[in-house]
Amino acid sequence: MRLADRIAQCRTPFVVQNLTNAAVTRLSGAADFAADLAQCPIRYVLSDELTRLCTALAYSKGARNLACADLLRVPAERVWIEWCDAAWLSELQLYGFKPPGKPAGASGRRGVLIRASPDGRRGLLRTFWSTGETDYDLLASSMEAYFDLDTEEGEEPDPPDRHDQPAICVSDSSSQDSDILRRYFRFRYERSWAEYYRRAVLTAAQEQAIARHALGTLAADIPVLLAFFLLLSTRTGLPQRTPELERLNRSRARAGKAALLEHIEVLSPVLREAHSAANGAALSLRRAPRLHHVRGHLVRRGAQLFWRVPHLRGNARAGAVHTRTVTWTVDRPRKTDFGNLAV
């Protein structure tokens, strides 16, 4: 079952108990977003191939920069996006991310709920994921992120509400001034979690360890989301299909089950494959390099994006790699005077 459906049907609150004094605290969890998921006007479900492509675009060399920031926007004021954990994690490992201690397996899914401004340039988001088949295995991040894609260099993105919880800045030292997370995004604990940790009276070391763990459930998703939004903005867009659920939902209703939510399945664009020639003949006397993997590279020139797909290079007695570049054309959005964000 899709993660959106599971959250929409979840009625089990997230409750923790203090082992010292037996005090019980309810914290914000998946069940608190059941109505939000049921009423969300747009729900995207990414195919595994598109998940891998967006992850490669997000984390390949040269893809994490500000060159395309003016093209990014959330496509609606409320959007849900989900994908399969296995495809996402396998691609992340290619770019140096360590796998989690207890992987969720093939059935694990991740999702992000976004509330955005009418122009899609500012908003608030939170992540969710599943680790099993029960309501207790539906988890929500203790942190949320807010963003403003029009933040000028040297300024801070403004929070979309009056939440005065201190914000955390995440940066990538290898990206330096081109780090999109550092410039446009800030992270903070959700209100109930912030109060819970405040009452716990943690040491500085404990606070740092908990914050790092909480950021790990959220920050790595954001570049992947931005890559997805970038692909949506291209002139050809992304292949989409809407599953027909009417017949299935009638059958579920007769069985006393909740109806499944409508959603849009988003597929990967057709990319020209990197074919190998069979001749493998040496074209010069120079010794060929050993077979090695070349990371992808994203370059923008005006209204066009050039994606140098990840590929193998070198001599593997399988020939040469052909056609490694994919080109997308982006229509620049018209300038419009939008109102203030209300979430």
Task: Itemize the secondary structure elements and their pairings.
Elements (H helix, E strand, L loop, with lengths): L2 H6 L5 E4 L6 E4 L6 H6 L2 E5 L1 H12 L18 E7 H10 L14 E8 L5 E9 L7 E3 L2 E6 L31 H5 E5 L1 H10 L3 H13 L4 H12 L7 E2 L4 H9 L9 E3 L25 E3 L2 E5 L2 E5 L2 E3 L11 E5 L14
Parallel strand pairs: 3-4, 3-11
Antiparallel strand pairs: 1-2, 4-5, 5-6, 6-7, 6-8, 8-9, 10-11, 12-15, 13-14, 14-16
Q: What characteristic shape results from the CA principal axes?
A: globular
Whole-angstrom Rg: 22 Å
Total individual domains: 1
- Please provide the ordered H/E string of secondary-structure elements: HEEHEHEHEEEEHEHHHEHEEEEEE
In terms of structural class, how would the helical and strand content be classed? alpha+beta
User: Helicity range of the residues?
Assistant: 10-25%
What is the percentage of strand-forming residues? 15-25%
Tell me about this structure.
The chain is α+β, with helices and mostly antiparallel strands and 343 residues long. The chain has one domain. Helices cover 24% and strands 22% of the residues. It is built from 9 helices and 16 strands. Strands 3, 4, 5, 6, 7, 8, 9, 10 and 11 form a 9-stranded mixed sheet that branches. It has a 3-stranded antiparallel sheet with strand order 13-14-16, with no helix packed on it. Helix 3 runs parallel beside helix 4 and helix 3 crosses helix 8. The longest helix has 13 residues. The C terminus is likely disordered.
